[in-house]
From TrEMBL:
Keyword Calcium appears in the UniProt entry: yes
Keywords: Calcium, Metal-binding, tRNA processing
Domain Archease per the UniProt entry, residue ranges: 4-149
Segments crossing the lipid bilayer: none
Protein name: Archease domain-containing protein
GO-annotated biological processes: tRNA processing
Family: Belongs to the archease family.
Claim: tRNA processing is one of the keywords in the record: yes
The organism's taxonomic lineage, starting at the top: Bacteria, Candidatus Nealsoniibacteriota
GO molecular function: metal ion binding
Length: 149
């Protein structure tokens, strides 16, 4: 199963994140957000999995997160917004999350990442526009997200 896919959009970054469960869909949304930001200017190429540009001596980092929201959709937006905020202030990109607690309204976990040399496109924010997260007929999860760039 693909982790995420970059979808066509005229001016912003749009992704579809997939997962065997909600946790994996959230993790893959994180990967799609940071991977897609590097790749957005040439996003018409199919089947390309981008990776952020780490510095030559990229040091690993870990950041604790604790998020509470009113529902699953808000939790996804708040989770990605927190990762984006931490990325900006720490000049890091996150490629993994280990959830200690996960429910439809709360997350506690640890983001793992590396220092950045540069990223292709700066994401201004995670939007609610067109946001959709749902379980498909085959019991896998899918999230459609739009990022303001």
């Amino acid at each position: 199963m693909k982790k995420y896919e970059i979808l066509e959009h005229i001016s912003d970054l749009k992704i579809k994140a997939l997962g065997k469960d909600k946790k994996e869909a959230f993790k893959n949304a994180l990967l799609g957000m940071f991977g897609g930001a590097r790749y957005k200017p040439i996003s018409k190429i199919k089947n390309f999995t981008p990776t952020p540009n780490f510095g030559v001596e990229a040091s690993k980092s870990k950041r604790e997160i604790k998020i509470s929201s009113s529902d699953l959709q808000s939790l996804l937006v708040d989770f990605l917004s927190e990762a984006l905020y931490l990325s900006e202030i720490n000049q890091e990109v996150y490629y993994d999350v280990q959830f200690k607690k996960f429910s439809d309204k709360n997350i506690e976990g640890i983001l793992s990442g590396k220092k950045l040399k540069r990223i292709g496109v700066q994401i201004k924010g995670v939007t609610y526009h067109g946001l959709d997260i749902h379980q498909k007929k085959d019991k896998t999860w899918e999230a459609i997200l739009l990022f303001d760039i």
